[in-house]
């Protein structure tokens, strides 16, 4: 009971604190980071308190402290999974898929015929449940990380393609005319004007693709994987009811995913520093 | 209309490439068989063989169409071999999850709009929660829900709801904040209370944003349902996994195309509702 009441009291206190902090956030910008941090800590404390207070079995929901202990205790295993799923599967697929998408987008941009024909088909394919192709890719490329990379390539291709094509259209006629009066070639216009102008759109696609990449690699591992990798770890631990290990894997995946997204956002800030959305 | 020809051309090229790839990928197996039998295959003999294998590496388009046709009409719709049955299982989970996710998303957006503390604290975590490959915890969720006594449908509906709620939150928050200062000032001069501002101005002007999010959300809900079915006995996701276990490529491709068609229909239905609603509201362009 003491755990439950403690959690409740902490929750009420944290909400009151956050409300007070939020009122002052306009004056002290640092509070914009403090408020979500307090909220996150509250979630963990309430989770711990409820699990202990209600005596929830660790087979159903382990407390965060147990997950943390397991996370620290099995770092080598988790690192191996991380290398297999993220560095080999997700990251290589992401680079190949995004690179191919930008290249195809430039080809589409050069041809009106392709633009009319390929884009509706691309939009249609982008709405499909792409994770469904995982079994096919596993069948073609084998159980190791190559099939996971292939799934990621297919998943990230269309969001980046659609965004890049939209971005390449983002220049104004006046700017293109100016380039024409300089008698700039297509390549020069592309390099100096249209690709830079397309960057906000491209990074929009890259950020969407960043969240898809890790999901694709993990889900593809459900369809067969070598004896390591995050998806393998989750399916294997399910059989042993090792829920604390699964939560530890999820924590690693969340950290990796957030860091990846953050890295892309930082690069975006450096590349598109001139864009209004980056300047406030 | 002028884009019909380009689209048909692109589709034609895709089908042609597909046939070519089917021949190319399936030929090694046929050559292998022929070599074992001690015979040599001519190209004319090879081509039809590669398009009629039982377990091709890549089934030819007409095999997939035949598989779809067989799955839809080959047996009673209640049969466990019927794609209609599995599709219905997936669809019901998708729709339930979509309704839950949309409801929660709209509620959360209203909370974020009216509560500064919630805005500052929930939004970063809602974004961070989407970094968690939430569909990766689908198998774990199934075990937990089983222990709590929930049905298989509720399990995948939760995953669907989780995936569809985020686009709705983002779109709805943006939509509810879309009225400009002039409109808000006008209502202030009428001394309208906050509730009136919400019902008469903010909610109507959020509709285009909401529908844009709903189209993303329903496609995400379908993905969630399919992934949620990977450890369940029925549904398109289960078809995909069993096809993968038994090497039934045609079954995988048929299930995939059934899911694709379902996604297209669902997005189309949301689009129709959007067009109708916006026209009734006088916002159609």
Intertermini distance of chain A: 48 Å
Please mark out the parts of chain B with pLDDT under 50 across 5 or more consecutive residues, or reply none: none
Kindly name the structural category of chain A: mainly alpha
Query: How many helices of chain A does DSSP assign?
Result: 11
Measured as a percent range, the helix fraction of chain A is over 70%
User: In angstroms, what separates the terminal alpha carbons of chain B?
Assistant: 20 Å
Q: What's the helix-strand series of chain A? A: HHHHHHHHHHH
Q: Which structural class do the helices and strands of chain B define? A: mainly alpha
> How many strand segments of chain A?
0
What kind of sheet is the major sheet of chain B? none
Mean pLDDT of chain A: 83
Fraction of helical residues of chain B: over 70%
Oligomerization: heterodimer
Envelope shape of chain B: elongated
Order of helices and strands of chain B, N to C?
HHHHHHHHHHH
- Backbone CA Rg of chain A: 24 Å
List keywords for this structure.
heterodimer, A: 280 residues, mainly alpha, B: 285 residues, 11 helices, elongated
Report on the structure:
Chain A is built from eleven helices and no strands. Chain A has helices spanning 2-24, 31-53, 64-73, 75-110, 112-126, 134-141, 145-168, 173-181, 186-221, 230-240, 243-271. Chain B is mainly α and 285 residues long. Helices cover 79% and strands 0% of the residues of chain B. The relative contact order of chain B is 0.11. Classes of the chains: A mainly alpha (280), B mainly alpha (285). Chains A and B meet through helix 1, helix 2, helix 5, helix 6 and helix 9 of A and helix 1, helix 5, helix 6, helix 9 and helix 10 of B.
């Amino acid at each position: 009971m003491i755990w439950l009441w403690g959690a409740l009291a902490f929750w009420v206190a944290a909400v009151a604190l956050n409300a007070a902090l939020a009122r002052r956030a306009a004056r002290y910008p640092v509070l914009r980071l403090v408020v979500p941090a307090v909220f996150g800590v509250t979630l963990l404390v309430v989770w711990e308190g409820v699990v202990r207070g209600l005596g929830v079995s660790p087979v159903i929901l382990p407390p965060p402290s147990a997950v943390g202990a397991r996370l620290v205790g099995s770092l080598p295993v988790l690192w191996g999974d991380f290398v297999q799923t993220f560095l080999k599967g997700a990251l290589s697929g992401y680079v190949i898929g995004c690179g191919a998408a930008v290249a195809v987008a430039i080809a589409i941009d050069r041809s009106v015929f392709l633009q009319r024909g390929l884009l509706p088909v691309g939009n249609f394919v982008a709405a499909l449940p792409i994770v469904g192709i995982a079994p096919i890719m596993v069948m073609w490329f084998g159980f190791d990380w190559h099939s996971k990379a292939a799934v990621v390539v297919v998943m990230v291709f269309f969001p980046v393609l659609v965004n890049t094509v939209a971005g390449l259209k983002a220049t104004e006629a006046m700017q293109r005319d100016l380039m024409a009066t300089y008698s700039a070639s297509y390549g020069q216009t592309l390099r100096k004007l249209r690709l830079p102008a397309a960057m906000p759109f491209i990074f929009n696609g890259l950020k969407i693709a960043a969240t898809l990449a890790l999901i694709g690699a993990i889900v593809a591992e459900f369809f067969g994987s070598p004896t390591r990798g995050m998806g393998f770890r989750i399916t294997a631990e399910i059989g042993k009811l090792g829920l604390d290990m699964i939560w530890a894997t999820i924590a690693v995946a969340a950290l990796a995913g957030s860091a990846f997204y953050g890295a892309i956002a930082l690069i975006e800030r450096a590349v598109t520093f001139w864009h209004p959305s980056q300047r406030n | 209309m002028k884009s019909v020809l380009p689209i048909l051309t692109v589709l034609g090229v895709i089908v042609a490439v597909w046939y070519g790839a089917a021949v190319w990928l399936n030929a090694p197996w046929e050559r292998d068989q022929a070599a074992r039998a001690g015979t040599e295959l001519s190209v004319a003999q090879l081509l039809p063989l590669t398009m009629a294998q039982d377990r091709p590496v890549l089934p030819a388009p007409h095999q997939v169409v035949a598989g779809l046709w067989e799955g839809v009409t080959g047996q009673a719709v209640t049969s466990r071999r019927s794609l209609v049955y599995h599709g219905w299982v997936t669809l019901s989970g998708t729709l339930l999850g979509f309704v839950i996710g949309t409801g929660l998303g709209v509620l959360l957006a209203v909370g974020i709009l009216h509560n500064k503390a919630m805005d500052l604290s929930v939004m970063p975590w809602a974004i961070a929660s989407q970094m968690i490959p939430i569909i990766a915890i689908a198998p774990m969720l199934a075990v937990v829900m089983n222990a709590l006594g929930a049905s298989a449908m509720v399990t995948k509906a939760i995953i669907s709801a989780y995936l569809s709620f985020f686009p709705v939150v983002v779109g709805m928050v943006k939509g509810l904040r879309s009225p400009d200062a002039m409109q808000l000032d006008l209502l202030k001069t009428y001394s309208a209370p906050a509730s009136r501002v919400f019902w008469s101005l903010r909610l109507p002007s959020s509709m285009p944003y909401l529908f844009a999010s709903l189209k993303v959300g329903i496609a995400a809900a379908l993905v969630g349902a399919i992934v949620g079915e990977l450890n369940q006995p029925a549904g398109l996701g289960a078809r995909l996994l069993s096809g993968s276990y038994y090497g039934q490529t045609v079954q995988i491709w048929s299930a995939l195309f059934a899911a694709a068609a379902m996604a297209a229909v669902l997005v189309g239905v949301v689009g129709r509702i959007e067009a109708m609603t916006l026209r009734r509201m006088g916002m159609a362009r």
